[in-house]
Write a structure and sequence with these properties.
4 strands; 45% helix
Length: 223
């Protein structure tokens, strides 16, 4: 069984899509499986959101890298707080002459699930390495899209579970019924779609007990 959150969710979904013979079940947290679109991802994002969408802001090498690495502690504090539950889901579109962190105010306090010790771990990991490795994943979106041409329109046939926070910016504005209907169109054996009230983007950190229970129940169902 493969489980992934955020960018890990597309990795989990595509593992099940490309190698169903090796996957008993797939769980995606936060990011639903939408299938392969007809246009390059960067073109589709520009058409729907304009040139300031954060993924497009990430494309030029060096720009977001420098912004995020200037003060890693402030980056993680603002990013994690602004996308947590209890805040209004933000529209991640960067205006000309600004940066991604300009969308994310300095929090008065950390969310209950996040501690200064947690931030210490993130800062230690990124202080030396920087953010370029992660940003390069975004910069390969179109290449990844091109490599999956043979699976265009193909659904995932293995058992699947989706879990997300109701306040997650990834699914903001999508009614629950419409989300489930869309999932059923790409996941032919959808065993459940759980939306956690009051939860933001960081599902497993914000609601560890509920997420763990959902995954354990799913694992028992497909074993």
């Amino acid at each position: 069984m493969v489980v992934g959150h955020d960018w890990g969710a597309p990795v989990a979904w595509h593992t099940a899509l490309l190698r169903p013979d090796r996957v008993r079940g797939a769980v995606g947290l936060s990011v639903p499986f939408r299938g392969r679109g007809p246009a390059r991802p960067t073109e589709a994002l520009a058409r729907h959101f304009g040139p300031g969408h954060y993924i497009l802001y990430f494309q030029p090498p060096g720009v977001a890298d420098a912004e995020l690495a200037a003060d890693p502690r402030a980056t993680f504090r603002r990013l994690l707080s602004a996308t947590s539950g209890g805040t209004s889901p933000l529209l991640p579109v960067v205006e000309p002459g600004t940066g991604l962190l300009d969308l994310m105010p300095e929090p008065e306090h950390l969310p209950a699930w996040l501690t200064e010790e947690d931030l210490d771990v993130y800062v230690d990991e990124y202080r030396g390495r920087g953010f370029t490795g992660g940003l390069n994943w975004y910069r390969n979106l179109d290449r990844s899209w091109a490599l999956t041409a043979a699976w265009n329109g193909a659904p995932i046939t293995r058992p699947a579970l989706f879990v997300a926070g109701e306040q997650d910016l990834v699914i903001a504005g999508v009614p629950a019924d419409a989300l489930v209907d869309a999932l059923r169109g790409t996941l032919t054996d959808l065993r459940g779609a759980t939306l956690l009230p009051g939860c933001g983007h960081w599902t497993q950190q914000e609601r560890p007990e509920e997420v763990s229970a959902a995954i354990i129940g799913f694992a028992g169902d497909v074993s």
